[in-house]
């Protein structure tokens, strides 16, 4: 979707995806010692702020300048430091390695998805982890959020194939009740992937 779409959505809503961190991301952060984390398409900063509170060194980016401004404002109000820049997924290239890379609800056409996932792999340091949470194909039956184009929804075999050269720790599809702001609310079909670069 166009940058203007996201700027408008973030400007028109006090909180698009809620102020609390994604539950899958929070669980990982709570159970691992702090390190460095990259958060692509981070939006208003809910995950970045939580990781920073827990002592992580946080780098994040998003297409939307409005989202970045809101995230940095919240970080300043909470006395937290995050590095946050504006960039599109199309232009993202790995130039640093992190202990953790977390891709939370980033839905892309097939060719761009493969490119993006390859850059994510390059962004993980040896021994580091990648978390991915996204809507499954079955989400098309729900009204709790996500793309309405089935081609932009994911399935486990495709994700496992994208990260075939990493060690898959878990790859699960779950039916969840989302409570992540007005655009992720209600019953949902979700995929959760955890991989490690050995």
From TrEMBL:
Question: Mind telling me which InterPro entries this protein's record contains?
Answer: Methyltransf_25, SAM-dependent_MTases_sf
Give the record's keywords alphabetically.
Answer: Methyltransferase, Transferase
Query: Tell me, which GO biological process terms does this entry list?
Result: methylation
Presence of keyword Transferase: yes
User: What GO MF terms are annotated?
Assistant: methyltransferase activity
Q: Which residues form a coiled coil?
A: none
Every Methyltransferase domain range: 41-128
Name the UniProt record assigns to this protein: Class I SAM-dependent methyltransferase
Record the organism: Flavihumibacter fluminis
């Amino acid at each position: 979707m166009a940058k203007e779409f996201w700027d408008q959505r973030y400007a028109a809503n006090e909180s698009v995806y809620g102020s609390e961190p994604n539950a899958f991301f929070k669980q990982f952060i709570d159970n691992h010692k702090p390190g460095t984390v990259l958060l692509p398409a981070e939006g208003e900063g809910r995950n970045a702020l939580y990781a920073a509170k827990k002592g992580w060194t946080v780098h994040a980016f998003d297409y939307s300048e409005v989202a970045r401004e809101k995230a940095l404002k919240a970080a300043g109000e909470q006395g937290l430091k995050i590095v946050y820049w504006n960039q599109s997924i199309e232009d993202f290239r790995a130039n640093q390695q992190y202990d953790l890379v977390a891709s939370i609800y980033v839905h892309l056409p097939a060719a761009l998805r493969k490119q993006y996932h390859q850059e994510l792999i390059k962004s993980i340091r040896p021994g580091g982890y990648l978390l991915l949470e996204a809507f499954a194909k079955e989400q098309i039956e729900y009204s709790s959020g996500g793309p309405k184009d089935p081609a932009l929804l994911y399935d486990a075999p495709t994700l496992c194939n994208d990260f075939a050269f990493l060690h898959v720790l878990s790859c699960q599809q779950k039916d969840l009740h989302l409570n992540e702001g007005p655009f992720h609310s209600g019953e949902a079909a979700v995929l959760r992937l955890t991989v490690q670069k050995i």
